[in-house]
Amino acid sequence: MNNLSKEMLLRFESVHKEDIETITQVLARITTKSPDQIKPYLNAMLERLVQPQEERPLYETATPSELAQAFREWASSHDRNSPLLSDYAVSRESMYDNEEL
What we know:
Elements: H1 3-15, H2 17-30, H3 35-50, H4 58-61, H5 64-76, H6 92-95
Helix pairs in contact: 2-3
């Protein structure tokens, strides 16, 4: 977390201190966790929520070869032993079986 994000989080927490305490108490009531156990989770969530979104998506910044490499990595991350769909399951006929024309 950079300094700007830390400052934003501290400002957010000081402005909304009562609300954050209320949320912590409500979460403690509806779970089996104590407020001290909930605070780290709530703090982590608040960090993510107030952090500025500076990073642009890959498709906006990557070269064609970088996109191709990212696609290959994504494709290879899937289980190769997954069962394949049948020809019928991916056919046009299966998509329109139940429709009246």
